[in-house]
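Most newcomers find our protein records easier to grasp once they have seen one. The structure tokens are whole numbers drawn from a learned vocabulary of backbone shapes. The record below serves as our worked example for the rest of this section.
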Amino acid sequence: MARLGTDKFVVEREKEVATRLSPGVFPAGRQSEWSAQNRTLTHSVHPLTNSVALGVAGKLPRELLKTDVRVYEQDQRVYVCGLGTMPDERLPFVNDTHAVFAAIQSIMDARGDHVGVDALLRMSALYREAMLRQVRVLQDARDSEFVRSENDVFQAMHAVWHLLEIVYVTTNAGLSASVVPYYMEWLNFNFPAPAAADGERILGSSPDANALAQNSDVWPYVQKLALRGHVTTVANMLERIAPAQALSAAASRWARELAQTARDMPLGSSDETSGSFNGRWRRWNSGLQSMATNMGSMLDKADDAALSALLCVVDVMRGDADTISRVGETWQDVLGAVLLYSEPTAQTERLPALAQLVLEQFEADDFTLVDRTLAALVRHELPEFLVYCNQIDAWLSAHVSDLMEHIGILDSCRRVFKVEPREHYLVALGERYLTHEGLWRVAMDYFGLCRTRVSQSIMGEYIVRMPLESDRKAQQVLRVCERYKLTEASERVHRQLGRQKWQRGRLGAAIAHFVRVNDSSAVGQICDQLWAEYLASGLLTYGPIIDSVLASSGHDRVRFLTQYRDFHECYKAGEFARAGKLLLSILVGEIAPIHAVPDLLVDSIPLLEGDALVFGADDTLELMRCAESIVFVGGEEGGVERDELSIFSVACARNLARSYVMQ
């Protein structure tokens, strides 16, 4: 695609955005000049509110430009705009299509970055079912401007997606060598014409053949039927009209003959060779050519309105370009008739050339956004097509770019876009979903399944700012971090949860979170708090808290509190030998904080002075070494009186002497 064309549709997109701002981003009516001066729009979405900052940015750094660019006053402005929230009416559609999107990414992971055509066809069908289901819901809803707008959007999305499926998926699946039957199916499904109600009205107001032949609406209706390929209905209508006495004998005869010819129109099949079908088609078309010649000769001799109308139908069916263009109201109609009657075996590669010939007959300024989108698609102008998809709806551009990536046709857009297209549109859709509090999990999947470092970074920034209103929400956030390997974000979330639990007095849960991120300082502070509460109350109430995190924690402070609790239980049970071993293990292993050592030494006094010898000579010497170490490091004695340490020293001396005697 030429760069000029790219600049054109980028400017149109920026024009649409800028016209919604006041004052404007660029001088009125000078958007092309503005864009040519190395300018584009940039934005940043606020991570916690539905607002976006919009401003002017350079396409390239000014240092890389060969010439200086003009400076506009608007370049210095930053616009803070509100983002529209995702309406609740879309939630079923969003959830249904998110499931399909996630499933196709899983298939890609399982098959090593390759998704087969069959899987893509199933995915595409599920997407279209979801769109049509949403259309039915909207049609049943109470009429309002919003409902009408949403209905138009979803019908447009279905038309675009359906044609994309035909052009790039269906015809690549080996289901048909010709794109024509699929295009006609698409045309008649998404843009049905002529309306069935028109036919019912014409037949209802014409009780017999004469009335039908004299009805002014019948011939335009039959011509439209022929244009859309409804040849069986054409034959039925002609057979109803043929007996009319109001018709000339020639018109009546040709009506019957044309009805039979319409019924005989060749239809291809999978078990027929292209040569055989082409032969049948040429013979059928030759019959129409002869019919047109004969009718023309008769009309040269005498005017016959019915015969002239019949000739128009014949000209359409024999593929006369001028007649098709005159009868067709839209370029889609004309292209369909050209394909059906002139090139019935045309393949996808033929579409751009035929579409260009047809589109030149229409005024592009009269095209709707959907017209421009479909025209870009059939002309294989994919970058422009993708931009127009985004103007229809963010959902469409995100999923179209994903499908294009799986098909392998996104590279043509990468050569034009200055960003990665798939990532850009998926992230934009994810940001849109974040405007609804119930869709944050869906949004995270759209971020995560981009599979790029940029999207991972964006995802991490969003997830650490996610409000954690409940434990269930917190666990969901952590599962997202685990699934997408957001290690840094996971650590930040664990620390945030740890602080929350700590403030709420849920110390066991707080320790568990801090342990997960190896935050020894926080774990130590909580354990010190538990120890201080024990010293103040004299009650060992922290047992359940420690037990809740014991299996997941190997932290020294947790082990200290656990073993100290076990020491007390053994002492109360009279298991003095085991209690002594636990106390000595705490001291020798140095798992207790230095300020707790004096209290532990005092706790050993009853065991040193007891009737049974609990500590041997070596054990006693270890206890004495621990006492000396606390004096050496600064004399920290915690809540212990110096007199108690003196008693400990005397008890150690007695126990040491007793141990020598007994040994």
